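User: Show me an example of a complex going from sequences to structure tokens.

Assistant: Sure. Here are the input components:
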Amino acid sequence: MRGGYGSCRVAEAVIRGLTDVARRKAYVGYSDAGTLLAGLYRAGFEAVAHGPMPADILREGGDAAVARALAWLVEAAPETLERTVGSVEKTAAFNITILSQLLGTPMQPDLEGHVLMLEEVSEAMYRIDRSLFHITSNEQIRKVAGIKLGRCDRIPPNEPDFGMTEEEVARYWCRRSGIPWLGRADIGHDIDNKVVPFGRIASGSHAAVRNNKGALIGRA
Amino acid sequence: MRGGYGSCRVAEAVIRGLTDVARRKAYVGYSDAGTLLAGLYRAGFEAVAHGPMPADILREGGDAAVARALAWLVEAAPETLERTVGSVEKTAAFNITILSQLLGTPMQPDLEGHVLMLEEVSEAMYRIDRSLFHITSNEQIRKVAGIKLGRCDRIPPNEPDFGMTEEEVARYWCRRSGIPWLGRADIGHDIDNKVVPFGRIASGSHAAVRNNKGALIGRA
């Protein structure tokens, strides 16, 4: 199931239609919902994060994932965050394919100086390789502080075998592009998916907590 | 089999290494080889075309496809060309996924004023949709004279059903982006794949015919 795949069709219209009330809310999601998160962040929304979605409840042990997202939305609970967050100035996180397909569109956010975390699911290694070529060749992306690789799960077999792991592929493209390789990130299409806020981490809280407004978006 | 999938890794180095002798040759291919064709065209090579490759001989009736590519390479035979070619000023053709993954990289050619023909194979409709969002959202691509859609074959089923044909999807993104929709093109991952030279069609011939140099590149 790819329930989120219409995001690229609706994102621009959705963002155009959002009011100041919407601006004070918090948004969390991942996978195809990244298109919308990117657009919201680009539009200056303060509380946007990569993290679990309602549909994660369907995973074995998924209640922990949904509880994590809610704890970020409602309390900005620090234990929900990916461990890198807070030790660096700015962060962002995306599914590899989704970020690739955003580049050069009106949804592409300015990620200069951000630690960029990337994850993937159900894509063959030659596709991960090609998408990372695309992402790391982008002039704007080359301004990130570095790349951390999340989990790449359920990779279909390559025929012939690709001969490299996802980490080797990511390290290769970092080396070629001059983007610092910063190691692994604790995100992925799974119940352990930690929360990665977009942008600078306000000290201890975010705008939506102060306004008491949160929203879980999208589906897995 | 995705034998051409390393193109994005080698294209830059290959093109950097090509000499003036290589510049006088002709190049034809499709699918992943499009990465290389794009880079060659961008580098000012005169005789670059989208068309059949050696591996097409493995298809039922594939000898006709390979003979077509050879007739273009050796004689610039006009009957090898896609029917649009010659009636318009400039043309280019790509696999949808490959063009999408080129955008914003050092391989992206200037396609302003070109009739852009696109084809796809073995990609689910939600992927075709997302790639066409990506392609038609690109500022440089918006300067093309228009888009013609080639064949989109062996589309895996979408669950839930996408509810649109590939032509409806392409027309939708043309309408949204303001790119003229110019109908269907006679190209695809099949033995009827016609030749589409990149750029302006020199009257009756191309540089490599004058120099008697041709090369079939890549594999299916």
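The lines above are the inputs; the final block is the predicted structure for all two components together. The CA atoms of residues 129 and 169 of chain B lie 6 Å apart.
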